[in-house]
Amino acid sequence: MNPRRASLIVAGAALCLVMSFAVMRARGGVFVGELKAQALAVRDAEGGRDIAINFRDRYGWLTRHPVLSGGKDLDAETRKRVAAGIVAIPGISGVSWARDSEGQAVSAHCQDDVERILETRTIRFGEASTRLEPSSERLLGEVARSLRPCVSSVIAVTGHTDASGNQKVNVALSQARAEAVRSALIARGIPATNLRAAGLGSARPVEGLDPMDPANRRIEFSVLYTAPVKPTPIDTPGPG
Fold first, then answer.
1. Which of 22, 171, 199, 219 could serve as 123's disulfide partner, Cβ 3.0–4.6 Å?
2. How far is CA 46 from the centre of its chain?
3. By 3-state DSSP, what share of the chain in percent is helix, strand and coil, each rounded to 5?
4. Average pLDDT rounded to a whole number, residues 137-142
């Protein structure tokens, strides 16, 4: 190939790459700008005007995982509502608080909320099955809403069985059910990277219950700790 022609091809390819990058940055800026406008509207509607919302990471890249800060004088319930409202906006991949102590306070409230939801109701499956019953599908919707403010935390989903039957089979069944619940939470907007599933079979019966009692067949949730999330550069969704 003629050297001059080759150099022109290389230069053209480089120019296309630069233009493509510039267009992507521009589109990303518009996209994040729209997300920020929605996030600010939600923040104000929930009474959290003192909370700052940052859609750039520490390197200056646009991100769909905003970091919340400020609002120290607000009560925990207001801060939780603001975080839950923002993370529910389509296109936002999650939120985190600027300081671990703030995130831990929100995480503790998530744990309390989930425990209250499950105090009188249980996530149920078909007999010897991983298929959720319809009532449990609705219940998981409530659990997901309570967990959304804690999307920067590690959330453990643990399956348990009673002591009837073969223990190895019970462990496998409890693991499969925990995985089914994990998948259901992902479908409801909880980031997969923050969910852990485990099955313990009948190893940990409810305190005070006979290990054979069917009430030991349960799913438990634990908001383990606040995991610092490093926001990533914006990946603007393509058409369609």
1. 219
2. 21
3. 50, 15, 35
4. 90
